[in-house]
Amino acid sequence: MFGASCSKVDRAYLDAAYEAGALLAGACVGMVFGGGNTGLMGAAARGVKSQGGEVIGVIPERLNQPGIAFADCDELIVTPDMHSRKAKMESLSFGFLALPGGFGTLEELLEVITLNQLGYLSTPVSILNTNGYYDALLTQLDTCIGQAFTDPACRGIYQAADTPAAAVAWLLRAIPVTLPNKIKDAIKDDKRIRENETKS
């Protein structure tokens, strides 16, 4: 899950984030997120926990401070920097849910779309378009495709929805398609680790 860390936004965004988290947990899906306590990140994490779900936070070392990091993570992974944070979140995730957010969220969202486009990932991207927040970005993405800067097939990587229920429902339908590749990759990674341990 990607989303804003700012809490000064309209309450509707925070409520939608909380609902999205609760819906994920209600479907027995855990959440990997940026580990933040505030904003939409914190709201979504609290939504997951309200339904007894699991949250894994991935936070850069410089942000791992009381009040900034979400204290109720089932696991909090601390990374050296932002780049390794994103890589870790990507490796742990079977799909992505992008909530409204600022520059960091926009970067994360566009990165996973690009990685899917280039074949480095095979994971669906669901965009929660609360209050039409992403309307302008979605128009720009359509412009990229319409003017031949991007292959039209890339339109299938992501899907936007106006409500948490619709965004989560689409993601849950799309995730099973990506699971086999993720499981195969995990088995390969485990095999490589075991082989290296045997050699050393």
Automatic annotation (TrEMBL):
Any Pfam family matching the protein: Lysine_decarbox
Gene Ontology terms: cellular component: cytosol
GO terms for biological process, alphabetical: cytokinin biosynthetic process
Sample GO molecular function, one term: hydrolase activity, hydrolyzing N-glycosyl compounds
InterPro entries: LOG (IPR005269), LOG_fam (IPR031100)
NCBIfam families: Rossman fold protein, TIGR00730 family (TIGR00730)
Name of the featured protein: LOG family protein YvdD
